[in-house]
Amino acid sequence: MRLLVDLSPMDPALGLAIEEVLLESVRQEVCETIRIWINERAVILGRSQSSAAEVDEAQARALGIPILRRVSGGGTVYHYPGNLNVSVFLQKRPELSEVSSVFQFFGALLTEALARLAPTLYHENNGLYADGLKVGGAAQAHRGEAVLYHTTLLIGPSPIPMETLLLAMRPGYRPEGISSHPRAATSLSEYLSRTIEPSEVVGPLVDALASALSVHPEAGRLTRHEQAQAAALREEKYGSLRWNRKL
Q: Residue 64 CA to chain centroid, in angstroms?
């Protein structure tokens, strides 16, 4: 299995474009992949959500934070360099054929991977929690026999409170289409009262994924074809208002 690790904050539109390209690579049986990466600041909508219902668009514009839409479902999240994104692109397995089973499998895996760091973590539905506070949320996408599971782990605190941007964190939230399910959140650094670097959790995450999936991750890179596809999608789709504001 290919392993892609990039801890330099990247253009979020390109980051999302790469996700779709890697999902398509799995659908075409090219390569299964684990990807661990970081985005620059962006509000990321679920595939079927309304930007106007989910985001304080005026605040986002004033702060220079783009509002983008991902290929997977679920609720709106705020990406910033204190987040660590973990994505797994797989051919469907019997134990990973249903949405609920995918969340259960990877939720248990993440809890185990981070147990030495934070032994009180637990998973529930698509979230990861510490003492009732959310430290991670996940989503997924399916294309034919290909599955994308990805989660955003809050490693370091954000200088911008989430309620500044996310309407679901405020009283009077009125969703359109798929709703977000807000929970009070914290970062691992805040919860553990010490600075956690994203690099500190990469090794345990990769080891847990390798063991649970019975694979041998090998460091790799995008192919030239995948790079070209991602660049095109970044311009034509994830960098376009037509896709990002479609609802």
A: 21
Residue 98: give the domain boundaries: 2-244
Q: What is the DSSP string of 33-73?
A: EEEEEEE-SEEEE-TTB-HHHHB-HHHHHHHT--EEE-SS-
- In the Cβ-directed half-sphere of 99, how many Cα atoms lie within 13 Å? 11
Question: Which tens digits make up the pLDDT trace of 118-160?
Answer: 999 999 999 999 999 999 999 999 999 999 999 999 999 999 9
Strands (E), the chain: 2-10, 33-39, 42-45, 67-69, 77-79, 83-91, 122-124, 127-130, 133-143, 146-154, 218-219
The pLDDT tens digits of the residues spanning 189-243 come to 999 999 999 999 999 999 999 999 999 999 999 999 999 999 999 999 999 999 9
CB distance 54 to 76 below 8 Å: yes
- Partners of 49 in beta bridges: 177
Assign residue 240 the CATH number of its domain: 3.30.930.10
Among residues 18, 24, 20, 14, which one has the least CA distance to residue 4?
18
| Pairwise CA distance, residues 115 & 201, whole Å | 11
Of 64, 32, 236, 73, give the one whose Cα is nearest residue 160. Answer: 64
For the chain, what is the largest distance between any 2 Cα atoms, rounded to a whole number of angstroms?
48
Contacts of 96 (CB under 8 A, 6+ apart): 90, 102, 105, 147
- Count of domains observed in the chain: 1
Q: In whole angstroms, what is the distance from residue 180 CA to residue 45 CA?
A: 9
